[in-house]
Design brief:
Largest sheet: 8 strands, mixed
CATH topology: Double-stranded beta-helix
Bound molecules: succinic acid
Structural class: alpha+beta
CATH superfamily: Clavaminate synthase-like
Number of strands: 16
Strand content: 25-35%
Length: 297
């Protein structure tokens, strides 16, 4: 059964709140939405240059309104990428991924003909296995495949709001286990990275409240979330299966087509993303900085 058939609220449209309310109200940047619910391209800013605090604040507002924002044609060195990330908070160190030499905060994203797996394929929020998962990620793709390699983003406020009141009540107060072990073990072998003895695991609320907006969002993801605590395994499996199917509904999504030097900045607390690995044996590579977050509540 399709999500839309199972949940008439998803079909009804008006119950899906628009992500952005202020397109056109920015003084320093231009913001062009990619879909009614998530994603906007920002123009009028050079990310490699020192930015005025008012510009930074407008980017932060655009992120809060749109959950994922995109910038085209932004050549940056690793140092400039790091400096841009630091405007939004302290940077996170990835528990498994390789980094640019000399820049432990700048993670390398790369897949090619030798890859057995690709980073970010499958729906997830970054490093949700950490006790304090990252608030946001800033990815720059430097090398694009001839076709494909897009990333899809989905609005988890909208996914939560489209659930029935009965389901919302059922999820209220539940927590779930997020495990990095099966995600990270061997993931970076093609890049010559040896595995660590263990990877993080954490318990988080199934529905979290965003610290900036006060809005509730669905916070389970297919990559990291292994079970809902306090439910029999079969019930947990069935409920997670339903939630994963529900949150993948196209009504909650936008799709970003990369061009060399494009940058995506997404909020891991209220958005999920899925990097599509449809370009093998071609190569795709880039760099990511990740901004520290808080314990989900
Ligand atoms: C990621 O999850 O950071 C990777 C996203 C992408 O490569 O598009």
């Amino acid at each position: 059964m399709s999500v839309a058939t199972a949940n008439p609220r998803v079909r009804s449209g008006p119950r899906i709140r628009n992500a952005a309310g202020r397109a056109g109200e920015y003084r320093h940047i231009r913001v062009r939405r990619l879909s009614p619910v998530i994603g906007a391209e920002i123009e009028g800013v050079d990310l490699s240059a020192p930015l005025d605090p008012e510009v930074v604040e407008e980017i932060r507002e655009a992120l809060a309104d749109n959950l994922a924002v995109f910038f085209r044609d932004q050549p940056m060195t690793a140092a400039q990428h790091k400096a841009f990330g630091e405007l939004f908070g302290e940077l996170h160190l990835h528990p498994a991924a390789p980094h640019v030499p000399g820049f432990p905060e700048v993670m390398i994203i790369a897949a090619d003909a030798d890859s057995k797996r690709a980073n970010g394929e499958g729906w997830h929020t970054d490093v949700s296995c950490d006790a304090e998962p990252p608030m946001g990620s800033i990815l720059q793709i430097l090398e694009c495949p001839p076709e494909g390699g897009d990333t899809i983003f989905a609005n988890m406020y909208a996914a939560y709001e489209a659930l029935s009141d009965r389901m919302k009540a059922h999820l209220d107060g539940l927590t779930a286990v997020h495990d990095g072990e099966h995600v990270y073990r061997g993931l970076y072998a093609n890049l010559g990275v040896a595995d660590k003895p263990s990877y993080p695991r954490a318990s988080h609320p199934v529905v979290r409240t965003h610290p900036w907006t006060g809005r509730k969002s669905l916070y389970v993801n297919q990559a990291f979330t292994t079970r809902i605590e306090g439910l029999p395994q079969e019930e947990s499996d069935a409920l997670l299966r339903y939630l994963y199917q529900h949150l993948q509904h196209p009504l909650f999504q936008c799709r970003f087509k990369w061009t060399p030097d494009a940058v995506a900045f997404w909020d891991n607390r209220c958005a999920q993303h899925h990097a599509i690995w449809d370009y093998w044996p071609h190569a795709r590579s880039g760099r990511r900085v990740t901004i520290k977050g808080e314990r989900p509540v």
